[in-house]
Amino acid sequence: MQIDVFLTTLLAGMAYVLIPGPATLAALNLSATKGRRTCCTFLVGHLLGDLFWASLAIAAIIGTSYLGPALFQALGMICGMYLIYLGGRAWISSQTTTAPLVVNPWRSGLIFGLTNPKAYPFAIAMFASVLSRFEGTLVIGNATFLVIAAFCGFIVATALVVFWTGLPAIRYGFLRYGLVINRAIGVIFIVLGAKIVVDATADYDPRFKR
Fold this sequence. Notes:
Layout: H1 2-18, H2 22-33, H3 36-67, H4 69-92, H5 105-115, H6 119-131, H7 143-165, H8 168-201
């Protein structure tokens, strides 16, 4: 059971990083304009921001599991609607990148990770959707275990992002079609947010009943 929980949380951590968002656009921009090394340094700093938000999200999910399913549903609806809002903004935006001004890549990545508007609601939605099916797992004693599993997923996914954003074809494509990519990411957010809202409003399976 613990292995299943660890692998599931690890995969959720990977999905959290790999599903496109503001950090993906930043990584694409940095790889295309400054190279893979700068992108890697930036994402290492960003990784600490991801760890911070994931820790808060897991703590909130564990707390919600004790307080009951109604709060869990409300949290899902709020996060889903916020993701739809972010997706709508990306769709109507005329900007092609969201990369920060980089002087110190590591420090810029850390600041960007801590201020990323996607981070907390997306972490809540992602981890809640996968952890809620493990009855008895969401207890305070497992919090550190879950955070470590998620962080392992972050590390693997970050390495993949550095690899694929640095590919010559990807760098060329982003420089030429950055606006289209930005709007496509907006659509992903809208679809994902809508699914989260639908799941939250559906009949709730009493998975947290004790």
